[in-house]
């Protein structure tokens, strides 16, 4: 018998993409931002970053995160850190 709930099974291999964009010329570059962003998110999250000039995308494995809403809230909260000033969630 599996100890996974139905929700856990549905999200065990599912991902969510979240992106941040640079809106200030004084904001750190995308390469610096992705390192800071990953360092401030929960360490148990499995993330694959993609870096482009002025944009950072994270593909986050949903298993163990609390779901899409929790991921989006956490990324938004991390982007409020002063080290990431000038970066905002992509709409």
Blueprint of the fold:
Elements: H1 6-11, E1 15-22, H2 30-40, E2 47-52, E3 55-61, H3 68-78, E4 87-89
Antiparallel strand pairs: 1-3, 1-4, 2-3
Architecture overview:
This protein is an alpha+beta fold and 91 residues long. It is 31% helix and 26% strand. The chain is built from three helices and four strands, in the order H-E-H-E-E-H-E. The protein has helices spanning 6-11, 30-40, 68-78, and strands at 15-22, 47-52, 55-61, 87-89. The protein has a four-stranded antiparallel β-sheet with strand order 2-3-1-4. Strand 2 and strand 3 form a beta hairpin. The radius of gyration is 14 Å and the shape is globular. The protein starts with 5 loop residues before the first helix and ends with a strand.
Briefly summarize what is shown.
The chain is α+β, with helices and mostly antiparallel strands and 91 residues long.
List the total number of helices: 3
Largest sheet: 4 strands, antiparallel
Uncertain runs with pLDDT below 50, 5 residues or more?
Answer: none
How are the strands ordered across the major sheet?
A: 2-3-1-4
Distance between the termini: 41 Å
Q: Could you state the order of secondary-structure elements as H and E?
A: HEHEEHE
Structural class: alpha+beta
State the helical fraction.
25-40%
What portion of residues belong to β-strands? 25-35%
Features:
about 90 residues; alpha+beta; 4-stranded antiparallel sheet
């Amino acid at each position: 018998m599996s100890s996974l709930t139905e929700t856990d099974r549905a999200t065990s291999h599912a991902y969510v993409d979240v992106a941040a964009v640079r809106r200030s010329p004084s904001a750190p570059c995308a390469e610096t931002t992705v390192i800071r962003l990953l360092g401030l998110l929960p360490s148990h999250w499995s993330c694959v970053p993609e870096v482009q000039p002025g944009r950072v995308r994270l593909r986050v494995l949903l298993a163990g995160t609390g779901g899409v809403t929790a991921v989006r809230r956490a990324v938004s909260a991390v982007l409020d850190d002063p080290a990431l000033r000038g970066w905002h969630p992509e709409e």
